[in-house]
Amino acid sequence: MTCAIDINHVFFRYADFKMEDINLKLHVGEQKAIVGLNGSGKTTLFKLLLGLLEPDSGEISVFEKKLTKDNLWEIRQDVGFLFQNPDDQLFAPTVWDDVSFGPRNLGLSEEEVTERVEWALDRVGMSSFVNRPVNQMSHGQAKRVALAGIISMRPSILVLDEPFTGLDFKMVTKMIEIIQRLRQDGVTILFTTHNSFFIENWSDSVAVIQDGKIVFDGPTHEAVRTKVVIDNVGDWGQLRQQIKSYKTTSLE
Ligand SMILES: Nc1ncnc2c1ncn2[C@@H]1O[C@H](COP(=O)(O)OP(=O)(O)OP(=O)(O)O)[C@@H](O)[C@H]1O
Ligand SMILES: [Mg+2]
């Protein structure tokens, strides 16, 4: 089976944090959730995968092509990365400039660029914002524009860092619809979430990262029964009971 992503014995160190011996494989079309507490290394892992950070050792391959300084630009065109914070993603003055940047860099004609931008903004329900400055949008609107920028490139891999955080229910539904259509075309997806709903219902497999190490990697049906996964996602049923007990106490 072809490997879309292959992370092989990757080590990386910030001053006070290290990623140790990271190994992760995604086959073409797989949808994997990355789970871990705040500060466990999820975004760092994504930055390594995108070549935004360079491993101290180890190798990362995308479609069996090893990531190097020379092919970074080429590989990034095939990997759409939705940042955790859309403010880190949007950089051009207007929505149009931002969404058209990627397709223009693919060397498409102006006509094709226009077609892709209009299609992508329509998909995320942001067509009426086309001439708006990117710094005058709400968090959810900015996230939708950031997603438009990614899908306008028609990537084969989507790397989504907490894609649903801050989105209203209608947009979550829409985003799942958009991604579902991409999945039908065989797109591979790696995403992070803190929400057990998406782990249980929207992933084929789950990897848990804890203090910069992968401590679980397996199919979702196995993950949902595994203690280390439950510990990292949190026991929401138990929290419900705890809150109920507060209410009872405060009424007494
Ligand atoms: N630029 C940086 N320089 C130094 N340390 C950093 C830098 N960015 C992140 N870190 C540290 O690396 C660790 C992992 O951070 P990372 O952003 O990968 O966590 P995360 O799992 O994505 O957390 P969250 O769930 O909060 O998004 C944290 O301890 C963080 O303080
Ligand atoms: Mg993060």
What do these coordinates show?
This protein is α/β, with parallel strands linked by helices and 252 residues long. It has a domain at 1-78 and 194-252: Rossmann fold (3-Layer(aba) Sandwich). It has helices spanning 42-49, 72-76, 95-105, 110-123, 139-151, 169-184, 196-201, 220-223, 227-233, 236-251, and strands spanning 3-14, 17-27, 31-35, 57-62, 65-66, 79-82, 157-161, 188-192, 205-210, 213-219. The protein has a six-stranded mixed beta sheet, sandwiched between helices. A four-stranded antiparallel beta sheet has the order 2-1-4-5, covered by helices on one side. Bound molecules: adenosine-5'-triphosphate (ATP) and magnesium ion. The site of adenosine-5'-triphosphate has 12 residues, from α1.
